Every structure is written in structure tokens, then in C-alpha cells.
Amino acid sequence: MATNRTFTMLKPDSVEKGHIGAILQMINKAGFRIVAMKLTHMTTADAKAFYAVHSERPFYGELVEYMTRGPIVAAILEKDNAVEDFRTLIGATNPADAAEGTIRKLYAASIGENAVHGSDSDENAAIEGAFHFSGREMF
Ligand code: UDP
Ligand code: MG
Fold this sequence. Notes:
This protein is of the alpha+beta class. It has a single domain, classed as Alpha-Beta Plaits. It has 7 helices and 4 strands; from the N terminus they run βααβααβααβα. A 4-stranded antiparallel β-sheet has the order 2-3-1-4. The chain starts with a strand and ends in a 7-residue tail after the last helix. The structure holds uridine-5'-diphosphate (UDP) and magnesium ion. Residues 54, 59, 62-63, 93, 111-112, 114, 117, 120 line the site of uridine-5'-diphosphate.
């Protein structure tokens, strides 16, 4: 995967609250092109593997419960400087610390239920995109 791509998930709370359209509009307006996208429901094994880096953290169990309680929208996004610019668009992990106008400031309920995922590096963007999509699903 090219390094001008990032990976996102609109998490179960965003889907439950009907925020898919509003969040995708923000993503498009910020200049990201959607390369791949689907509604999908992670299994417990999926979520444990996706978040394996956090397996020793105290919130891991809750995070896996949350991420598997309903469908998510998974997507690969393309833009110059995609990883960094998308992290700016989503805002801080804790919505209480997120800048005005960011996706998490507008749509996240708490540090746990924080509306969206954004990859933290080009390397992880490639790994996370490949976790959810085959090459034939990327455009
Ligand atoms: N999380 C949580 N409690 C915390 C930190 C993180 O429940 O104290 C959850 C939250 O959903 C977050 C995810 O775990 O988005 C991954 O954490 P990370 O530190 O990677 O934050 P992110 O990269 O998503 O901003
Ligand atoms: Mg992270």
C-alpha cells in the first residue's frame, strides 16, 4: 500500500447513532479519497487481533467488547500526508481533549467510545488496511 494512505473505522457507536453520513462527509470535505469501504462486524477474535498492541492495557477487555457489539464501517483513505492529516481531522483520543471541529469533538462520547479509529503510522495503515481488505477490494 502506498504511504499516502491511512485506515479508518467508524466505530459501533457512530453506526448506532446514525453518524456514518456526517462523518464520511467530513472525511470527503477534508480531501480524502475513499479507496476501499465496507460495513462489517468484527468477531471477538478479530478485535483482539486488531488491538493486540493494547492487550496488556487495562481497557483492552472493554475495547474488545465495544468494537464487537455492532457493525463498523472500515475504510482506506488516500490523501497527501494521509496518516497525520487524518489524525488531525479526528482529534485527540479523549474527546474532552479534542480540538473544536474534529470528528471526535463532534461525535465521540468518551475516551472509550470515541467514534473513529485512525492509523498512527504508515506501517500500521498498511497492516490495518490489509487486515480488513483484500487487494481486489481496493480502488
Ligand atoms: N481506549 C480506551 N481507554 C483509554 C485509551 C484508549 O478505552 O484510556 C480505547 C479507545 O477506543 C481508543 C483505543 O482504545 O481509540 C485505542 O487506543 P489508542 O491509544 O491507540 O488511541 P487512538 O489511536 O485510537 O487515538
Ligand atoms: Mg491508536
